[in-house]
Amino acid sequence: MLRDKWVAHAVNHFDDVKVHVTVQATSNGGHVVSGVGIKAQMVTGFVQAWMQSFRELCVAVQAIQRREFSRENERVKLLAQELPISQIMQRQRIDQIAFTDRILTPSKVRKKFST
Prior knowledge:
Elements: E1 15-25, E2 31-42, H1 43-82, H2 85-90
Antiparallel strand pairs: 1-2
């Protein structure tokens, strides 16, 4: 076991020293130590590495959320297409605005605004 007294390190609390042991598998299924190394890093490097990992996690979660939302959106769209328009018109909107026939006239000529 490697102990701190055998590894040179700074007394600074923002420095971190890690000992790495390289182990290789042998042809007969055993293991042999092929090297020992020391890696020094500052705590700020750890924070930066943690933030990078956190960012990667957020990107992965966002990709999962997009896939799930897309699937659910497609499922609800197919269900809505199967409903008669009269049933859709009876449902309450989430923005509390009542459905009216006016909303369902996309070909209606709208008032032109002057600029």
